[in-house]
Amino acid sequence: MYNLLMKEFKIGVSPFFYVLPFLTGALMLIPGWLYFLVILYFCFITIPNMFGGYKSQNDLIFTSIMPVTKRDMVKARVSFIVILELLHIVVAMIYGVFTLRLYPDMVYLFFKPSFGFWGLCFIMLAIFNLIFISMYYKTSYKYGAAAFAANTGAILFAGSAEWLALQNSYVFDLFKGAGTENTGVHLLILLAGIVIFALFTFIAYHIANKRFEKVEM
Prior knowledge:
Elements: H1 2-12, H2 16-25, H3 36-56, H4 59-64, H5 70-102, H6 115-136, H7 144-167, H8 169-176, H9 183-213
Helix pairs in contact: 1-5, 2-3, 2-5, 3-5, 3-7, 5-6, 5-9, 6-7, 6-9, 7-8
């Protein structure tokens, strides 16, 4: 599995996708922006291009002739996706710290980049992973429908969260007002988000394993 993961890093994708988190993360410096989009760019840009590259390079055929199991192939690919997702979130969080320092008196219409917000981002990616990974491994070749469905799910979650904050005064205050200073609550939301992210991705991995075993190569 380690060698497969190294293959992903070295020849699986363009080096541009290791730079992209620093480019999209810089959008966190825009005051009062819709910061969910910073993480969604991973779903919009990285995933379709990455899997389009796999398809054009016949990566499935190439990997299948290596002395590896199907389980290891899935594990390496899912691990690589998770590493890229974590890179996007961590870089965006660092930029978010600068945002809070640069604009301490900002009045937020959209979510403030608090710990709780990043917890919601983990949940958004959890939904994306559950849909995309499980759908993609029905064929392990066709990625368009899986990417569309997963992006739709992630967008609906982000849109629903923003709508709820506008409709509910408690949620608004918690994520955009004085409640953002309640570090304990926000850390709990962040922890819950990480747990949901890990759980959903683990479930997606197991669904993918079962489906990939049935795929003829």
